[in-house]
Design a protein that fits this description.
The chain is α/β, with parallel strands linked by helices and about 500 residues long. The chain is built from 14 helices and 19 strands. Helix content is about 30%, strand content about 15%. The relative contact order is 0.14.
């Protein structure tokens, strides 16, 4: 009897303070660690493949890198930043902010740097982890805060490896290569390329932009904040919160509404975007090359007040003829012209459906993630994958990315995850695992809403999965927040072992 009582007591203590492994020390990983500890969970380990926190803002250091969401909206709700230098914060500013938050909240001390997760297997009710250093861990929960755009995609172009000059992907920028006065080519015209072109056009001897598909460009002035702008915000979190909410309100009722079915919002954004092109580019031939043939918002809308000026500089050439191959000396287009280059930059994006992979992830009954996702990359509420108990994929498929703050998305998801963990701690759920039926029903609901969105407008973008279905949230931001307010336990595998003693409310904070 004493052995049974002791076992029940030990399991109750484990339930009260479960062990959690967080994969990644980027924006979401930092947030998750802070909120787990606030919930009374102290057994937290963060595995980070690099030597410091920061995620995408540590990885991307190309010239002109910046966030296309207003800076005062791109902060944690509990810690604003009065020191932003620009309305659209530069990458180095955001990296500094992430490092400061991590240090002030003690997150840095939880991180095991230069150590990635190689193997993650669920057996006997626990996750068994093996890291890149050969270290092993056994934990109750795994949170994959691995981000979305972190595996660079390289173009499938004949002869890519034959180029004799310097060549690199934008996410692997080589700062040892000087571009001043050089003949530089850049493949791609998305958000990243737009930022780079705006900067390199000032220093490159000749910049050739190889465009496959033009982008819609929306112009918002990148205001530089003065001391007078910053002073009232210092020490005033309430004021910074109001400023963040003001930007969020504008974004929800313009950009978000425009892509999710509001005809009025879409008409306004479309008119402003097309007007920007018409007034900014006077040359009708160049304007025609820069005019997309798809709806505004079908691809991610590019925010830039500098691109059209940059693309019209005398040292910049926009090449719209298809690329045939890469030669030793440069890029050969389909018309037979060889564009000789000193440096070739690949602004060709990322693999958006890798998520936590290439981690070897195996769930219940030896189910691998590659098998689970063999036909379709899907999850329940973007977070839970049937067959993978006590595993959460942050910012998973159908998270409402769009032109909105990813920090806001992570905060909503984190609250939801913590409520699920709390149900587990109280014994309401034996494991946190969405049912297959719930996942199917949820994804049918998503598909039913896609018809009114702009993402089904016929363009190709990283928003679309291999089947051509948008991996986005098709409804309003407010509806998404409302639906993640409280977990529906009927959507999860139920069952509470008799020996688990439910945690009482008074015990939770113990």
């Amino acid at each position: 009897f004493r052995r049974v009582l002791f076992r029940s007591s030990m399991e109750n203590n484990t339930r009260n303070n479960p062990s959690v492994a967080v994969i990644g020390a980027g924006m979401t990983g930092i947030l998750m660690a802070i909120k787990l500890r606030e919930a009374g969970i102290t057994d937290i380990t963060i595995l980070e493949k690099a030597d410091r926190v920061g995620g995408t803002w540590r990885e991307n250091t190309y010239p002109g890198v910046a966030c296309d969401v207003p800076a005062h909206m791109y902060t944690y709700s509990f810690m604003g930043n009065p020191e932003w230098e620009h309305r659209f914060a530069h990458g180095s500013e955001i990296q500094q902010y992430m490092e400061r938050v991590s240090a002030e909240y003690g997150v840095t001390d939880m991180v095991r740097f230069n150590e990635s997760l190689d193997d993650c297997h669920y057996r006997e009710g626990k996750w068994h982890l093996t890291t890149s250093k050969g270290n092993q861990m056994v934990v109750d929960f795994v949170v994959a805060a691995t981000g979305i755009l972190h595996h660079p995609a390289y173009p499938d172009i004949q002869g890519l490896d034959s180029f004799k000059g310097d060549m690199f992907h934008t996410a692997r920028w080589d700062h040892d290569v000087s571009l001043e006065g050089k003949r530089v080519g850049i493949i791609g015209t998305g958000s990243t390329a737009t930022q780079i072109i705006s900067e390199l056009s000032k220093t490159a001897g000749k910049l050739t932009v190889f465009q496959r598909t033009p982008q819609w460009i929306f112009s918002v002035p990148d205001k530089e904040y003065t001391e007078a702008d910053k002073a009232p915000l210092r020490g005033n979190q309430s004021l910074m919160t109001k400023l963040s909410k003001r930007y969020a309100f504008i974004m929800r009722h313009t950009f978000t509404a425009a892509v999710t079915g509001s005809k009025t919002a879409h008409a306004l954004i479309s008119w402003l975007t097309k007007r920007n092109l018409r007034k900014s580019v006077r040359d009708p031939e160049l304007r025609a090359k820069l005019t997309p043939d798809y709806k505004v918002g079908c691809k991610r809308l590019v925010i830039s007040s500098k691109f059209y000026e940059a693309i019209q500089r005398k040292n910049v050439h926009l090449e719209t003829t298809a690329i045939e191959r890469i030669s030793e000396r440069g890029v050969v287009t389909a018309d037979g012209n060889e564009h000789e280059l000193d440096v070739l930059i690949l602004a060709t994006g990322f693999h958006p459906f890798n998520f936590m992979r290439p981690m070897n992830l195996t769930g219940r009954d030896e189910l691998s993630i590659d098998t689970a996702w063999a036909k379709k990359v899907q999850a329940y509420r973007s977070l839970c994958i049937p067959g993978f108990p006590n595993f959460f994929l942050m910012l998973g498929p159908n998270t409402p990315i769009g032109n909105y703050s990813v920090i806001a998305m992570s905060e909503v998801q984190t609250k939801y995850v913590l409520k699920l963990i709390d149900h587990w701690r109280r014994g309401n759920l034996q494991t946190v695992e969405a049912t297959e039926e719930a996942k199917v029903r949820y994804n049918d609901y998503l598909k039913a809403g896609m018809g009114k969105t702009v993402w089904v407008g016929g363009c190709q973008s990283w928003y679309l999965d291999p089947d051509g279905d948008p991996a986005m949230w098709p409804y309003s931001w407010d509806q998404w927040v409302k639906e993640l307010e409280e977990p529906d336990l009927d959507d999860f595998c139920r069952g509470t072992p008799a020996e688990i003693v439910p945690i009482q409310p008074a015990e939770k904070a113990a």
